[in-house]
Design goal:
alpha+beta
Length: 93
Amino acid sequence: MPEADRSAQETLLEFPCAFPLKIMGRAEGALAQTVLDIVLRHAPDYDGATMEMRASSGGNYLSLTCTINATSKPQLDALYRELSAHPLIKVVL
C-alpha cells in the first residue's frame, strides 16, 4: 500500500485542516518564542500573532494554543515529537 494511503488510514483527520496544538510548560521568558520557532519549522504559514497564552492561577505555568494549518499526519507527528522533546515543554496535547 502506498505511504500516503497508509497515512490517511491511520487518522480520521482530513487534510488540510485547522489543528489546535495545546502546549504547556514552565512560565519562563523563552517558552513562547521557543514554541513559535518549533511550530514555524513545521508549519511555515503559521501566524504567530494568533498564538493564545494563558498563565496558570499560580503563575508558574503557561498554556499556549497554536492553531496550525495541518497538511499531513507526518507533519503533525514530527511537530509533536519536536515539541515533546524540548526541556521547557512539559505537555503537548
